[in-house]
Structures are given as C-alpha cells and as structure tokens.
Amino acid sequence: MACGLCGTDVHIFHGDKGAADNPFPIVLGHEFSGVVEEINVGGGVRPHVAIGDRVCVDPNVLCGRCEFCLGGIGHFCEGMTGIGTTVDGGFAEYCAVPLTQLYKIADDCTYGRAALAEPLSCCLHGIDGCDIRAGENAVVIGGGLIGLIMLQLARMRGAASVCLIEPVAEKRALAESLGADLTIDPFTRDAAQELWKNGIRRVSTVIECVGSVKTVEQAISLAGKKSVVMLFGLTKPEDSLSVKPFDFFKREITLRSSFINPYTMKRAVDLINGGKLELDSLISARLPLDGLGDALGNPDIRKSGKILITPWGGA
Ligand SMILES: [Zn+2]
Ligand SMILES: [Zn+2]
Predict the structure, then answer these.
(1) What range defines the domain where residue 251 resides?
(2) Spacing, Cα 4 to ligand 1 middle (Å)
(3) What is the pLDDT of residues 249-294, one digit of tens each?
(4) Is residue 145 part of a domain?
(5) Residue 261 C-alpha to ligand 2 middle, in angstroms?
(6) 270: in domain
(7) Following DSSP, what letter does each residue of the chain receive, concatenated?
(8) In the chain, fewer beta carbons within 10 Å around the N or the C end?
C-alpha cells in the first residue's frame, strides 16, 4: 500500500556500492506496509497474522545460525536477506515476505505512517547509542526525515534542548513545529556562536544525519565535554576525514555509529501505533508506481522531504 523511497534506493539505482550487494534485476523498496492477501505456510505453523490484516515489514531477515546471529548481533548476519535490497521488495503491487517479518499496525494507523516503521527502527538503534541523559543538550545536524525523527526521539529521551542545523528554511520551520528549541541555518550563521548566544554552553550529544565529511567535522567540532557524536548519516565508502586525537582527549568525545535496526522494529511499531511521533508532516508526496523512475532519477523531486510510492493509491 505504501513504500518509502530511501537514500539507499537512490544509491542502488545509481550503482553506488552501499550496505548490501544487490543482484540485478531487482524490485527495490524496503520501507513498506500493506495488507495480507495470502498466507502460505507448512503444516503445523500457526501464523500470527490473518488474511486482511494491515501490516508493516521488517526487511532484514536474519539467518539465525551464523557467528553474528548466535552472538546476539544479528544485524551483522552473514546470511542476511534484505527485502528490497537482495530480494524483491515493496515498490510493487504485491510482495512475498516471510511471516517472521510482519508487524500488525493499529486500525487508525495509516499505511504511510506504517511505512516509516523501518527508518524509525534504525533511528531507535541510533538514539540508543547516544545515551542522552534527561536535562542535557542535543544537536541534530540535518533536517530530512531521519533528522526530524531524531529530533523527536531526543526530546522523548528528556533532552533539555534540541537544536537542529539545516540550511533549508521549510525544514527548519517544520523542526520548530516539532519542538526544536533552536534551529540554525549553517550557510548564514556560525552554529557554535548561535548555541553560545542561546545559552547552550555544553552539547552532550551531536547526531549527524547528513553523511557528508563537512557535517561530520561540524558534529565533532560542536561536541562538548564528555559528549557522544553519533555518526548516523551514510557517508560514501571512499570518504575519509582528518581528526585531531587531542580534541577527543581534551573533551572526552565518544564517536559512535549505528548500523540498521537490531531488535528495534517492535518498538518502532509500538511508537507509531501509539501515535507517539509526528510523522504525517514528514511525508512530502505520495506517487503512483510509475512515478518511481522520476523520483529516483530527479533529485529535485526528493528535495522537499520523504516520498512514498503508493501502488494502490490513497494511504
Ligand atoms: Zn531505508
Ligand atoms: Zn546470521
């Protein structure tokens, strides 16, 4: 019913090397929701969903038997199947999905919101790694879907203030409506100065949600004493940056990263089903299946925010 267009899809479309090796041809789309139309199980298997149920999908299918699955870090599974990355995914009218990957969505939850469960589950893994303590100050760099979700999660964790750094005015306005205490245009303002001017003397968490060398460097420079810098944005495999180890020593900066969504999908679905996050305003457009080619090929279409492909309309 709805499938989110993700940066990963764009990378794969353009042939960039990303998180997974993709066999071609393949139907992309790994952030999706829909209706159960048919169930095929062997004898003795009792499915937890029924025909007609409204569901969303965890696209990462673990083998359950490799070194990493058995070691409790299944997101590094050597035999992982990625629905929409290594096998056919959600940019289609129908998609076959293992039962284990299905999560029921609430009656009043739209398919569009439910399609955001996967990116939200990734954000939950990221926010877990930030160790935000109630009353501390957080900075989020980047006001795309991920940054605007991270902003909301940082507030839920009890941050005294959350500042969002983003050059696009509409996205800053959206961030303010979602509760950002301060927004900064990095092209016209010095972020460190603005934070200082607004009484923020120590930033304990910086969440980088852009994935460029420049913004990673900015994240490290804004990190305060005893802070965590979360590298969440996906950089290019060949990117590298130079850091001064002395800065890390002087400020006791911890650099963290976050890879996909280990065991966070249920929490994501529970948050969405419970209406705990504002997601509708993060969706900028719903396109039919035949709009997918344009959306993948034309960055201007993707600039305004999250795009959903809705093969059956509505949602
Ligand atoms: Zn994605
Ligand atoms: Zn495994």
Answers:
(1) 125-257
(2) 7
(3) 999 999 999 999 999 999 999 999 999 999 999 999 999 999 999 9
(4) yes
(5) 14
(6) no
(7) -EEEE-HHHHHHHTT---SS---SS-----SEEEE-------TT---SS-TT-EEEE--EE--S-SHHHHTT-GGG-TT-EEBTTTB--SSSS-----GGGEEE--TT--HHHHTTHHHHHHHHHHHHHHTPPTT-EEEEE--SHHHHHHHHHHHHTT-SEEEEE-S-HHHHHHHHHTT-SEEE-TTTS-HHHHHHHTT---EEEEEE-S--HHHHHHHHHH--TT-EEEE-S---TT------HHHHHHHT-EEEE--S-TT-HHHHHHHHHTT-S--GGGEEEEE-GGGHHHHHH-HHHHTTSEEEE-TTS--
(8) C
